[in-house]
Amino acid sequence: MFSTPRRALTALVLALALVATVTSPSSADKKHDLEQQQKAAKGKAAGAKRDLDESSAKFIAAASALKNAQASLDAAKNNLGKTKGMLAVAKTVDAQMQVRLARSQADLDVAMARLAKGQAELDASQAEVEQFTVQNIQQGDRGMRAFGDLLSGEDPTTFTQQVTLNDSVSDAQVATMQKLAASKVILQINRNKVKALRDQVAQQRKEAADNLVEKRKLEASAKAQTDQVTALVSKRSKAKSSAAALKKEDARQYAILVKERNSLSSQLRALARKQIASGGAGSGGDGGSILSMPVKGNPPITSPYGMRVHPITHVYKLHDGTDFGVPCGTKVYAAASGTVLQEYYNYGYGNRLILNNGIMRGANIVTTYNHLSSYVAHPGQKVKRGQLIAYSGTTGYSTGCHLHFMVLVNGATVQPMNWL
Asked: In the chain, what are the domains?
């Protein structure tokens, strides 16, 4: 991918015969870079680096789909767990209700049997009382009849026996009447008990029926949710496979990116040596000691320079520039005067422009502008500080419009903010 740009770059280097004095990066730069690496190693820098550069849009979408699929699966499993719990409760309650209903029904059967027996006893007592009443009417008062017999000359002993018999019959009548009254009371008590038990059984049957309806609903819901979980497991599995495949492809492309980055660094170091050999003539720089902002308006930094743990791949790697959050189509300006070395499309950096800014602070400075939407300046063209050279975009590994700005000192990337 980079072989053609590399040949063009080498040819351009020979044609331009750029020269610069080579010195090592400043101690301040080294110290800052070391501090950045130490912070990242301790995990302190990861939280501030939320962008997803060096990840393809397809992989990010697949990772997002996997995350959503997992979230949906977790929610479905949680709902299924709750439904199964409710179903277990409904089944337990159903079993308890059936036991109580059976017990209440048995109590009702016993009460109804007692009621029937009481009714029979009441009917018998009533019949007996009615019989006594009829006999009394037919035979008259026994005591008065015995007294009449005595007056008619009946033996006094017979009179005594008849009076005693009359008393016994009267006692028996009183007992029968008392038994009749008691039977009526007991019968009413049994009727009330039967009514209460019937109401209780009816209520328990209704509750059991309602619970049965709820249980069947929960069973249907549990089945539907189980099917949903099964489908989501399949969906999550496919999303996971897709994300894994794209992650593998991203890793391969990232390896290519690193290889190109190292190759570019090697070429720029060679360029620096050639500039030394030629005495620095024709470098095209403006001799300044700092760089100007490549975009106007004090834009926010969406991702700083430094080592970081990638938020999706969790790979610890270098974010080799500073990301300025600007809309696509924002004007991009030369950070210093210089010569455009190359412009080309890269899988990771997208459309990029490489500008040799010559000697600054005693070192060869090269700036690169990445993820561009289009170019204004072209290879071999000399540009002035602040001159329009391109427009920002979101090409290559990019999840949104921004400018990825890099500074290379003698071929090695450094913290851009130390030069702005």
From this structure: 3-51+279-418 (2.70.70.10), 74-231 (1.10.287.1700)
Contacts for 14 with CB less than 8 Å, ≥ 6 apart? none
DSSP, collapsed to helix, strand or coil, labels residue 377 as coil
Asked if 371 and 351 touch (Cβ cutoff 8 Å), the reply is yes
DSSP code, position 342:
E
In 3D space, the residue among 280, 386, 266 whose CA is nearest the CA of residue 331 turns out to be 386
- With b for 16 or more beta-carbon neighbours within 10 A and e for fewer, the 90-103 pattern comes to beeebeebeeebee
Q: Give dist(CA 6, CA 1) in Å, integer.
A: 9
In angstroms, the CA 176 to CA 182 distance is 10
Global pTM value: 0.53
**CA–CA dist 170, 303 (Å, integer):** 116
Provide the residue-wise pLDDT of the chain in tens; the chain has 420 residues: 334 444 444 334 333 333 333 333 444 454 455 444 444 443 333 333 333 455 566 777 777 788 888 888 899 889 889 888 988 998 898 899 889 888 888 888 888 888 788 888 788 877 777 777 776 676 656 656 655 665 666 666 766 666 565 666 566 667 777 777 777 788 888 888 888 988 998 998 988 899 889 889 898 988 899 998 899 899 888 888 888 887 787 777 777 777 888 888 888 888 777 766 665 555 567 777 899 999 999 999 999 999 887 666 677 788 899 999 999 999 999 999 999 999 999 888 999 999 999 888 888 999 999 999 999 999 999 999 999 999 999 998 887 899 999 999 999 999 999 999
Question: Could you identify the residue written with the tokens 């009946």?
Answer: 154
Beta bridge partners of 345: 351
